[in-house]
Design goal:
single chain, 267 residues, alpha/beta, Rossmann fold, 13 helices, 16% strand, binds adenosine-5'-diphosphate, binds magnesium ion, AAA_dom, P-loop_NTPase
Length: 267
Amino acid sequence: MAKILAVTNQKGGVGKTTTSVNLAASLEAVKRRVLLIDLDPQGNATMGSGVDKGQLEHTVYQVLLGSASVVDVRVSSPSGKYDLLPANRELAGAEIELIDLPGRETRLREALREVEREYDFILIDCPPALNLLTLNGLCAAEAVVIPMQCEYYALEGLSDLVNTIKKVRAHFNSKLEIEGLLRTMFDPRNILAQQVSDQLQQYFGDRVYRTVIPRNVRLAEAPSFGIPALYHDRLSKGTQAYLALAREIVTRYFPESAMPDQQYQQT
Ligand code: ADP
Ligand code: MG
């Protein structure tokens, strides 16, 4: 049964999509079957996976509204290595159209039942808002991955998110947990970043991933090629960091699993 993880933070530009796309590629590289769901009308995870969001007949929008199934809508990323449930701007309309539908918060969860045995991980790239789309992501997930930049207002935003998670847990999804907090675009020479990172570890302990994602130009430029950075430059620091994150996550869920490190080097 797939582990369903929502990559979420209501703040934009913190690395949600970069994390979703590169973690999808990295989990595949350590031999896991992955479905990536783009739940953001901006369609960045779709484009970043090499799928042209302007050319799509069906997207996650139809899945949420119930007029298509996940099986009908999913595509292989052009690299062929993970599956993608794509999105484009049409999804912005779902926010309003869902309001009057039954089970509006849990429609993604219901739709995923059909495929959850086919994957080891289902990753959901959430939009930068605490809206009904994000709520569908949080209701479908068993845990959240929270990418964050270690800057001044980060902890404040985090407490809003933690409160939302508590509410979702109380009303819709009692099992929802924080899988981990991921420090992104990290610059160890920045003293403020170090301080925020220390505070984060004080509050959240081992729920802060050991893996830190550095600021890295390969991660920033990969979307312009429409591929995860791993397929573009597998030795870059950014790529290696996301591979390390994939191993850290896999080890949490499958502690007995073989050395993914070695598996990766064999590919
Ligand atoms: P979000 O999905 O949270 O809005 P993105 O993943 O789109 O954030 O990242 C915002 C911007 O920062 C993008 O231009 C992306 O390429 C860039 N970026 C993200 N992570 C990194 C990183 N580790 N190093 C350099 N640039 C990054
Ligand atoms: Mg995004």
